[in-house]
Automatic annotation (TrEMBL):
This is Carbohydrate ABC transporter permease. PROSITE patterns: ABC_TM1 (PS50928). It comes from the Bacteria. The chain crosses the membrane at residues 30-51, 95-116, 128-150, 156-178, 207-228, 262-283. It is found in: Cell membrane.
Length: 298
């Protein structure tokens, strides 16, 4: 009887010793989740207030008593925003410039990241340091030099010139991001392909590029958001109002003479944010699928 009772007592004492760490982990998880919820509410509240204001009539927008839900919901602000001068033209300009910038930035960064991560050549480290240094510079510091260069080349006021400016702004970050994905690919895959007779272009096209699809998608999201939200370059480089992009159109709801149409501006902000949300929702599924496929080892 005494011998058989020893394992039972030992297991009970082990459970008792393991209980306090489990309680501490639960408490830590509760605190972490609480802090995350608080930060989420703080970050999402401005978005909620923007959507809330977009559906309010003008008297409710200007009232001193805040209403967390519209008392008389209306779509008039959206009608004003859509019928605003040059909305469709500025939307077309944004789509053309952003799509061009994303495509060019992904193509250039993909090959540049592959070269910097897989090939060994003289000056490779210097190039990477220069890319990092350019990325650390503020965009406004490069505005005047870029303007002078583009003016001498006759690229001001054109889609191609603005696309090149956006590509130059996005490219350093895109190269560094994709380079990290290329480095994680085992070199043995390339060596096996070389043994089978595959050349450099075949290895890039059939082995390396498919494995960095998650990096391409995440980089495209960054490039899309950066180009879509950019204001200073578009306002400086484009000479005519018919060539402006949507960020400049968004500013048109505020002027020193007429004041700010807050309802129309919030409705315009909702319309301005929708393409980014839609693009992310479309890309997110492919991003998760690509990450799951890249996590499989065999």
């Amino acid at each position: 009887m005494t011998t058989s009772a020893l394992p039972t007592r030992a297991s009970a004492s082990a459970k008792t010793a393991a209980a306090p760490p489990q309680r501490r982990r639960r408490k830590r998880h509760v605190w972490v989740n609480t802090i995350a919820i608080v930060f989420s509410i703080v970050w999402i509240f401005p978005v909620y207030w923007m959507v809330n204001t977009a559906f309010k009539p003008q008297p409710e927008v200007m009232t001193s008593t805040p209403h967390f839900l519209p008392l008389n919901p209306t779509l008039d602000n959206f009608v004003v925003a859509i019928t605003q001068t040059n909305f469709l033209i500025n939307l077309r300009n944004s789509v053309i410039v952003v799509v061009g910038a994303v495509v060019f930035a992904l193509a250039l960064s993909l090959f540049a990241a592959a070269a910097l991560s897989r090939f060994r050549f003289r000056g490779r480290r210097t190039i990477m340091v220069l890319i990092l240094a350019v990325q650390m510079l503020p965009g406004t510091a490069l505005l005047i030099p870029q303007f002078l260069i583009f003016n001498n080349l006759g690229l001001l006021g054109s889609y191609f010139g603005l696309i090149l400016a956006y590509v130059a702004a996005v490219l350093p970050f895109a190269i560094w991001t994709l380079r990290g994905f290329f480095i994680t690919i085992p070199v043995e895959l390339e060596e096996a392909a070389m043994v089978d007779g595959a050349g450099t272009w075949r290895i890039l096209r059939s082995i390396l590029f498919p494995l960095v699809v998650p990096g391409v998608i995440s980089t495209s999201i960054f490039a899309f958001i950066s180009a879509w939200n950019e204001y200073i370059l578009a306002y400086t480089f484009m000479k005519e109002q018919t060539m402006y992009t949507l960020p400049i159109w968004l500013v048109s709801f505020s002027s020193p003479t007429t004041g700010t149409d807050y309802g129309g501006q919030m409705a315009a902000s909702v319309l301005f944010a929708l393409p980014v949300v839609i693009f992310f929702l479309i890309i997110q599924r492919h991003l998760v699928a690509g990450m799951s496929a890249g996590a499989v080892k065999g």
